[in-house]
Amino acid sequence: MLSIALSELIQIFRNRLVLLTSFVIPIAPCAFFIYRHEIFAELGSFGYIAAVVMFTVAAFGLYTTTVTTLASRRQNLFLKRLRSTPASDVAILIGLTLPVTVLAIVQVVVILAVLATVTGAPDSLLLLGAAVVSTVAMMLALGLATAGLTNSPEHAQVTTLPVSLGAIGVSTWVGITGTQELTQLKRLLPGGSATELVLNAWNGGVPVADSLQLLLPTLLWVVAAVALASRMFRWEPRR
Prior knowledge:
The chain is mostly helical.
């Protein structure tokens, strides 16, 4: 597994397109949000900014890159060759997705640390950490599921749009309007409960026990996405 992860990490830094989608595209809007934090805080709150930058990295840096990577490895038959090794299917998938997952987590941590330096520390690091981990797990699981519907790296530019833009859109909607209205709908949409958890973690004012309940909808999305991936993921190109 670690040898696969190391090989994949080397491939990431050799591929300019992957570097662009994994680093430049997510970081640029995040830097703008932090630079204009006073304006966006008036629109929502500092917690809103934290949620949006988190989902920007998770959607473009993690989710899109995961789908593109797996589609590419399937197309060049690398997945098929890996299955002929002693490594299990789970170990192969972990090895292929581990580098981009770690890079995404590092990006989120660094960006949120910069935001905290500019705006002040969040109210609860524990809740914020739970929100980041659950969001990463959800977007990674959705990436595995979407990869089953994606025929090629080029096709990934189309198949990833609904989830990536949808997650950021939901985060923006919940971050600006809150969950006082349409509460259940907003929490059940992918990214809704995670955004509310970030708002509570950063802004404070909500009991920890009430906030932890917001992990459930995100974890349900993880379970649903993994179940879908187990049925639809393909190891060889369609003939």
